[in-house]
Amino acid sequence: DTAVSQTPKYLVTQMGNDKSIKCEQNLGHDTMYWYKQDSKKFLKIMFSYNNKELIINETVPNRFSPKSPDKAHLNLHINSLELGDSAVYFCASSRQAYNEKLFFGSGTQLSVL
Amino acid sequence: LAKTTQPISMDSYEGQEVNITCSHNNIATNDYITWYQQFPSQGPRFIIQGYKTKVTNEVASLFIPADRKSSTLSLPRVSLSDTAVYYCLVEGASGSARQLTFGSGTQLTVLP
């Protein structure tokens, strides 16, 4: 069983569209994250939820909205997609919020045309 | 803000020991140092974490000098399958967003 799974793996869409990426973890972790990895391989934290509460909200356009219906799920909705949103988006989880190792999903390759 | 600096790339040969150093001059008292490995088309995977001195597990060792301004990941006897990007992450108890942002990593290429 995959510990952190995200869908879809690939997402190709047109500028201006709205899309969602889903993430689920079966590790029983309290904390979940969304990361963005650009073409230069920098991994930047976007959001983090701890027990369904938003604890990290990095400088990200308002078009990005995370939603955590329960501890095991953290979805990412993106409105009005732009070319610059093209990247790989990783979901991750950890047992607790601090100094805990991160478990990553396999990523969603988003291509905005 | 503990920004990290790593070499962009390193080459090695199979069977050699590889040492990758990460500089983190502004590390705070409560910060831990964690290393991750990432293969193409996969998410990063935890390798090792430490606070000071030396930590060893089944895949790597982590050396941290007394001033903690740098750390060295040591991979013994690398194989071709160790070719990957290695990230150093310094994170603190404050849970600062920036301290959870990875640097650009070190591309390790293991040659036959």
Summarize the structure.
The complex is a heterodimer of chains A (113) and B (112). By secondary structure, chain A is an all-beta fold. Chain A has strands at 4-7, 10-13, 19-25, 31-37, 43-50, 53-57, 64-70, 73-78, 87-94, 103-104, 108-112.
What does this protein structure show overall?
Chain A is mainly β. Chain A has no helices and 11 strands. Chain A has a single domain (4-112), classed as Immunoglobulins (Immunoglobulin-like). Chain A is 0% helix and 56% strand. In chain A, a hairpin with an 8-residue loop joins strand 9 (87-94) and strand 10. Chain A is globular and about 35 Å long. By secondary structure, chain B is mainly beta. Chain B has a single domain (9-111), classed as Immunoglobulins (Immunoglobulin-like), CATH 2.60.40.10. Chain B has a 5-stranded mixed beta sheet, with no helix packed on it. In chain B, a hairpin with a 4-residue loop joins strand 5 and strand 6. The model of chain B has no long low-confidence stretch (mean pLDDT 90). The chains are: A mainly beta (113), B mainly beta (112).
